[in-house]
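Memo subject: From amino acid sequence to discrete backbone structure tokens
Keywords: amino acid chain, backbone geometry, structure tokens, three-dimensional fold.
Body of memo: The sequence and its backbone structure tokens, given next.
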Amino acid sequence: MANPLSPTKKTSMQRQSREIKIGSVKLGGQNPILVQSMAATRTQDIEGTRRQIAILEKAGADLIRIAIDSQKDVEALKILREEAKTPLVVDLQESYRLAEFLAPLVQKIRYNPGHLHHHEKGKSKQDKVAWIVEKVAPHNCALRVGVNCGSVDPEWLERYPKDHEKAIVSSAIENCEILDKLGFKNYLVSLKDSDPNRVVAVNKRFHLLCPSVPLHLGVTEAGLPPEGVIKTRVAFEQLLSQGIGDTVRVSLTVPFEEKGQEIYVARGIIEDIQNGRFRSVSYYENAGLNIISCPSCSRVENEKFVELAQKVKDMAVFAKSHKLTIAIMGCRVNGPGETDDADLGLWCSPTFVNLKRKDEFLGRFSYEDILPRLKTEIKRLIT
């Protein structure tokens, strides 16, 4: 039997998902795979975010995501949306109540079931999702149910403590069932992890159970190029070639002025897969040093974060043959949770960097002092 991933065989990438609409853009079904990215600047920084939108539009982004954390961000968005030529997507993060003000302004809103869990605990998750639907439906605003490895709904983690993948998939399915019962169909799902193998596993698992639900693919915190590109390619080749995935994002830690790289890399991977050119492996082997870092967003409070990630990579090269994971996150919102699986985790604040070794918090260090301390901790773990 011929190898379905043979480089000489063109891949059809036929998909089973239903079609949804994000403004005037159609997603899912047999429509082209949409490529998106996210502004790295604080949304309140109108000039900086305007520049990010311009960079991503020039690179050819189909959708541009912006994080909203406050009413000030909403006011900034009102200005930015008037100038943007590309449909805008909003990431609610932990401010789901802002959906009421955002639905008239954007084409799609992403909420995280894990974040919903921590707010208004006296209210059921069904009621919270119903409230969001009530606000977005009149404006034909689409929804993305975004399940992330570092912030999975605790109820599902408690139910499946030894099967993280099942917890991720179950949380997504639960939210799909809630939306379906509400009669809301204009939604898609994302299931993300920093491990490309887990991204493949959870998306295959979800697709098998819910083949009609459109999927957004991405390896979250893929890190710096070229490793971040390789991790993403591994996941996309395994999924897109099997008709799984309707929109994608490549999450790279790059300088703000180079955010267009995410779009160019994504389109290159999609084109290769469509033409049967497979350049990676079927399983990503974390045999040595593994550096995880987020692609930055509006919550990153110091642009030194990108520079720090590169410095960590350069400094830690002496440990490249050791099986060790270092996670570098740009903010205090996702940082603690997203570094839980790392041997050493860093998350940044405006003037200092937090450091932990596995579950042990080691303290706060200046941007100048963090590298020597991190080097000491690396040596302690590998000797």
Notes: The mean pLDDT is 90. The chain has two domains: 20-274, 289-382. The chain is about 40% helix and 20% strand. The longest strand covers residues 142-148.
